[in-house]
Amino acid sequence: QEKSCRLSAALLGEDSEISQDQLYELLKYAALGKCHNAAQPSWCRIYHQSHLAGVVVVVLHEMSQLHFYRFYLQFKHLRKVFRHRFTLAPSTNFPVSLYGEGTNLKPQNTPQGLTSTSSECITKSSDLQCDPIIRRYGGKKQGLTSYTLTLEEQRKNGYPIEGSPRSKGYISTECDQQRTDSSPLFGLDCEMCLTAKGNEVTRVSLVDARGQCLLNELVKPESRVVNYCTRFSGVTKKMLLPVKTRLSDIQTRLKKMLPHDAVLVGHSLNFDLQALEMIHPSVIDTSLLFARNEGRKFKLKFLAKAVLGKEIQCEQKLGHDPTEDARAALELAQFFIEQGPTKVAELNLEMLLTAEKLAEVSQNKAALQPQGCGFQEQLNEPPPLSKPCFLDCLQVTGQKPLLLGRQGLDFSGLCQSNLSTSNKQILQRALENVPLSKFSIIQFSLGPEYLASHIHAGLYEKVRSKLTDMLTIYAGPFEENFCMKSVKKEFGRCGPIQSLTVVTETFQPYVCIQYEVLEAAQLAVESLNGAEVAGSCIKVQRPVTATMLDCNVLIKELELDVENEGVIYVAGLKNSLTEKDLQEEFSQLKDLETLFLPKDLQSGKHRNCCFLKFQKTQSAVAALEAINGWTMKGRELRSRNALAPGHLWRWIWQMNHSNGKQGKHIFYEKMEQLSDSEQDLRKKMKKFDHHIKKLYRSLQNNTLCIVLFPGVNSTHGAQSGLGLMGIKDEGRSAC
């Protein structure tokens, strides 16, 4: 009889925050077992791994924990089937951090530039909406004026601006004519040295649109030279000795040479213009044109090789050749304009850069190999690759992973890549192909219209606002001179209080209490509504707002959440009690598996509540009955079923302690558009849930299924990811 696989993970509190390395650990073991040095992950355990029918990873691209809990009610299937959840730190390069680096990617220099040994490395999807280039410029070809920097972009990137205090004394090129898409392009590059004044120009090059050199001149610095920077500039003291040309001469010549509608092109051109002490209104900066995530920039040398197939800044030469660099930047801009953003995005430059780095590491490692006997111990081994790609190992075992999606995930032929044009098409192909593969990566994605920063900021603000309302209760009315200490003591028995204030706008005083955990607020509503507190019979209620109209529905669904099965909340503890003390106190409770004692993330002090997780649901029910009214160290305990899954403690605490300013101005300005977008998002999330439900139902028994919201890095900060996992039929049927 076939053994049933099982997954166990006690994910509460701090232990429920999983790193990319830990997730990689799980995937490697699930896919390979004890072969290839794969070991049981440190944070969870797979029983009978050899009987796993397969591993399916579903990635919801550009989505975070925020999306799951904002649209919690829409994810009906996910929250009822996957009993294990964890918070996931967002990664700058999610595929590499998750699956490991593709060690067999070998770049080659071809007429078209850098490509992989497999043609699949260049993304051929017509739907690259999440590529930073597409997100910035769209997919359609446009004229050159669409790629010139705006005044605000110039200011943000340190360009000399007319009227700016930093540009005082700078000379204008006086190229003030309106630009059109037929305006002439000029490539500009300067080499600098370090003087007593700072960086000063030592050489200037200007090329026209055909790449012909118009200017290539050495310049004598005004101040004493401290460092000629010959390694980079190629300029020596001897070269500058006979030079008479000064900066003012170059400024005059450039003003004469440039037509009034000229567009200057360069790589990080802001530094060149600063060194020239000149202001030019219309520029294309190739370091920004070939956009990357998180403000990172490609080097000119890499772009020239990857895009143009040209080697520049060769090590054999002494320093850079400014004419060569100016021409390379110009040709890169021309390539971008002529081919359009989609063609550029399809080059998949990030992957090519990874390939180049891997090749360099490999070469360095080979160069450092010892030649003679007994010499090895004297050499330090070069640092190993942080993560070998376990997809390589799968191939050795005769398996070829399946990759389905719209994004440019690829592993140089290690996967059966199949890029689709819609999420519906991806689902259809998954239903057909997943049963044939032992390891599958299925990636669904949002459209570009849902990735705008104001939407992320708005979602964050809405979740934070609703969470605040759910943590808040109003109690009263009280007598005029009621005892605040008595009120705080009584309500404090329900759980840790974040703030307590008196409401004076009413005829009789009320108290507004904001708790740190959802269970505390719900316990206060359930146990103290209608009770006598501080000499008054009071009513306890949550705020009545539009977002709170479905609060009771949400509370009920949270209680039924599969992750909260067997977990209870206990309040009224003494703050001085440690986890060890509580383990001893609760040791008589049957089937107690895990105890989590929350603490203030700033002070590190324990709160007056804890969470208990039991192996069996009936044991949790029995414990709940036993604990209510239980006295511990002279204090009466109160308890109820858990509401917030264990992995949310840190996230709720951070939101609860935030000032609410994140993206708030954007949130209010864009309220109407956000409302429309959110309605569409609600439908989209429901569809994702349905897709995963359909896919899950099609899986064989004993299939490990992991659903990942990778997290989002935006201008409003990083949003943590979320992981859900389970083995099909691990004691429960699919909904």
Automatic annotation (TrEMBL):
Pfam families found in the cross-reference section: RNase_T (PF00929), RRM_1 (PF00076)
Database matches in InterPro entries: Nucleotide-bd_a/b_plait_sf, RBD_domain_sf, REX1-like_exo, REXO1/3/4-like, Ribonucl_H, RNaseH-like_sf, RNaseH_sf, RRM_dom
MF term (GO), any: RNA binding
One GO CC annotation: nucleus
Domain RRM stretches: 471-545, 566-644
SMART domains: EXOIII, RRM
Keyword field: Exonuclease, Hydrolase, Nuclease, RNA-binding
Protein's UniProt name: REXO5 exonuclease
Lineage: Eukaryota, Metazoa, Chordata, Craniata, Vertebrata
Gene coding for it: Rexo5
